[in-house]
What does this fold into?
Amino acid sequence: MRIGVIGAGSMGRILAHHIGKLGHHVSIANSRGPESLTVLAAEIGATPLSVFDAAKAGEMVILAIPTKAVTDLPRELFANVADGVVVIDIGNYHPELRDGRIDC
Ligand SMILES: NC(=O)c1ccc[n+]([C@@H]2O[C@H](COP(=O)([O-])OP(=O)(O)OC[C@H]3O[C@@H](n4cnc5c(N)ncnc54)[C@H](OP(=O)(O)O)[C@@H]3O)[C@@H](O)[C@H]2O)c1
It folds into this structure.
């Protein structure tokens, strides 16, 4: 399976690593661009991509970024993603720990 992981912090890198070890093709992205992921990607056997490309790189896309950062993602991020792609957001909202108050 092709799986895109957006977020390369504590959770994203662990998920990408383990998913890759299971034999899936994993792409990974962060906020700073694929160049910043060259070393990590080589270590965990993933392909470094931009956020846009990672969103289109998989039959499944995993969002592994802080909840407060979701609104920073491009609004059209999933506009051209194929039908049937599964998007999983693993974020937990932590208002006191990291996210602050997010108004609806
Ligand atoms: N479901 C679970 O079991 C579970 C367990 C633990 C944590 N979580 C949740 O998982 C989420 C991530 O936690 P974490 O500890 O992995 O966070 P983290 O270590 O702070 O890493 C956050 C990652 O998100 C990236 N990011 C932030 N804003 C972005 C944006 N606009 N576009 C693209 N990438 C962006 C960061 O990119 P840079 O590296 O470029 O800054 C970084 O790679 C949180 O919501 C946390 O609560 C879930």
